Amino acid sequence: MSKPLLRAGLVGLGAMGRHHARVLRALDGVEFIGGADPGGDPYGALSGVPLLNDVESLIALEPDYVVVVCPTALHESVALQLAEAGIPALIEKPLAHDTPAAQRVVEAFESRGLVAAVGHIERYNPALQSLRSRLEAGELGEVFQVATRRQGPFPNRIADVGVVKDLATHDLDLTGFVTGAQYTSVAAKTAHRSGRPHEDLVTVLGELDSGVIANHLVNWLSPLKERVSIVTGEKGCFVADTLTADLTFFANGSTRTEWDAISVFRGVSEGDMTRYAIPKREPLVLEHETFRDAVEGKADAGIVTLRQGLRAVMVAEAVLDSARTGETLPLALA
Length: 334
Description:
Elements: E1 6-11, H1 17-26, E2 30-36, E3 51-52, H2 55-60, E4 65-68, H3 75-84, E5 89-92, H4 99-110, E6 116-119, H5 126-136, E7 143-153, H6 163-179, E8 183-191, E9 201-208, E10 213-219, E11 221-233, E12 236-241, E13 246-252, H7 260-263, E14 270-275, H8 283-295, H9 306-325, E15 329-330
Parallel strand pairs: 1-2, 1-4, 2-3, 4-5, 5-6, 7-10
Antiparallel strand pairs: 7-11, 8-9, 8-15, 9-10, 11-12, 12-13, 13-14
Helix pairs in contact: 3-4, 4-9, 5-6, 6-9
Domain Gfo/Idh/MocA-like oxidoreductase N-terminal: 7-120
Protein name: Gfo/Idh/MocA family oxidoreductase
GO molecular function: nucleotide binding
């Protein structure tokens, strides 16, 4: 006899919500029972699944879990409603609009023993998962630096936060994910170039408790869309392109360069370049499968915990505080 399907609901049917709806409709072991959004279903994402006006109506359907994809400013209120009703939740990143709100969400779910996670989707990108495994296996030796570039045009779906909490939280989280380390300090500069109330450009310099130096360049001002993470260490560097889920390794060379005019410009010599063949599944599907498994009680499911999501919000706020004060700010270890 097959086990009953998990009943899943969705809050938010905007530009991101439509993708979550698509995955939920096709997810094995799950019945998509309804989507709630007072603004309706502008993308036709539900395809016959009931459309509800508010969270209360969704809760009344008694879902086994709910995915929260509403604007960041609403994450706290929606999450607290779900926690009060005893419903597990997968909450899009960032966890909440500020640190106190994120802490309240963490406490609400933890105090009730409820499964909950944050949708830091880059952790499910095949290139970064492979990179993390290779770093853990020591293939790069000692890690020196993590540098990321995340830039592109402004997405019209964003209205309530700036580029730090929307985009840079990806890089702040993935850096800790692939290195297994935490930020101990950050220094940042931001800019407002497009006439919006929130920052649209940030550059961050951070140090991790492992001694690794991190650099992040993030903006909404470039016609070039780029999602690149470069990890440099004693044996060479890995380059992960999360747009294509490609991972490439550039090894330090062991062959001496005899052309003096070239060799003088190099700190290390060029070695072999390897692009790995990685199974490429959609990160959003992997994220949903992982959370479904956690709701079913699989302890090693590998979700991004609420406390990890809280940490990302705390580091993002330190970045904004540094940009405002011009100071390098310390961060206590979690």
